[in-house]
Amino acid sequence: MAQAGFAIAASSWAVLMGIAPMLQIRSMLRAQSSREVSLGYFTILLIGFLLWVAYGVAAGIPALIIPGTQTVWTAQPRWRTGGICLEVFHSSFADGAPVDHYKCNGTDTQEWFEQSA
Description:
single chain; about 120 residues; mainly alpha; 2 domains; about 55% helix; about 10% strand
């Protein structure tokens, strides 16, 4: 019973996870800035990954448990994955500055925090 419930919840939430990036991009285009990424966007993704992990546990499917757990475990504001971090391109402090992936080096351009408008 729990397996079926998690399967339905995870599958339904997957639709929201697919729509969330489009809503985030729309917000960035409207603000003409990529400076702030919505906390709601990350929350949607986190809940989705947790649902898939729960479904994997209930169904006994390691292929869902292992990647989902790794994603939740390693999710950090720095987006640190394999030594690559998300940073502001060319160390720009201008509003709307593009972001880029670069080797993690601990510089200020790789530090992220939430700031109210």
